[in-house]
Structure prediction request, 367 residues.
Amino acid sequence: MTRADRLGFWVVLTAISGLLIENGTSSSPWLFFNPFGLLYVLPLYGLHVVLLTRAVLAAPRPSLPMLYVAGALLGLYEAYVTKVLWSPTWGSTDGAVVGGLHVFQTAVLVLFAHPVLAFIAPLVIAEAHLVGRSGVIAGMPPRLAAALGSPRGRGWAAALLAFVLAAHHASPPGGPLVHGASALANTLVVAALIWWWHRRYAAHPLPTLRDTLPGTRATIVLAGLLGLMYVASGVLIRPEGLPHQAGPHLVLAGIYAVLIAILARLIRRDSRSGPATHSELQPEPQLEPPSEPTSDPALKPASLAPHRDRGLLVFLVGYPLASAVLGLIPPVAAVIAVLTWAIAVPYGAWQLGRAAYLSVAPRRDVR
Prediction:
């Protein structure tokens, strides 16, 4: 795999992550059409996703709790970068505050939005539609892995994602034309990038996610760039939102330390269990016959064109349409978004609790 291909893939994955987390929540309605989105927001997500993916794929078969821990670490950027966890710009600003962190915003962003929309969902989409099997889907709970391993299951998952994302996108004021146009325009950009990736590998075996990862030297450079973004953001973006007392900074440092320790232990334990087997990388046999044989069983032969990939097509068409429809009834969209939080936030907390337990419990095969 060439360096250009690696860079191209991560541009595609970054675009998917940005579409889900920024456009999907209406944080950046025109993400791909303004300089701030292109030069700051997307690189910020791209660097996080690349580095965290490199970390979790050090494990042969990253589990769902492990992915949630990595996603929660991503979500904590909302403290020093945007200051939202300390000084909210949306939702209630007079809600409960613990250790300087606003509980409601922290719960939504760290337990749901960033782990699911910015990290886990893009990796699942990548493995299901863009690259070869890499152990991400195989590490899911068995029923979920089986569903995501079949075309029909991926179609239903895409429909659910499109519906939930459209509800979040259509909740703020704007009207159906604005919401529909915003979702459509940004989705077309992602569709074009996916089409480019498909054309690139239409006649070749697909690489795995591990094949796309940067090497050690490049990882150090990327980590340095992300660190510079944190420093610059702390000074230039809403500096008034930074706490002036040491307490909130110490609380956040403690959360970082705990999550990093849990992630490191989970990766170490999974690595000691040995590499994933061929059957684990294939949770369910593919229904489409392969177009040509491959020497590596972890590789799928070639990607389907976006218009022939049912799961991708359901999302790429369904998200803009559902955004326009739900834009006609914003109160209904808001209720759907709140119900999503009511389900997803406790589930995220449960997964982090499982991660903490599994990091210290006797080793066993738990997904």
Summary: The CA atoms of residues 60 and 274 lie 7 Å apart. The radius of gyration is 20 Å. The chain has a mean pLDDT of 87.
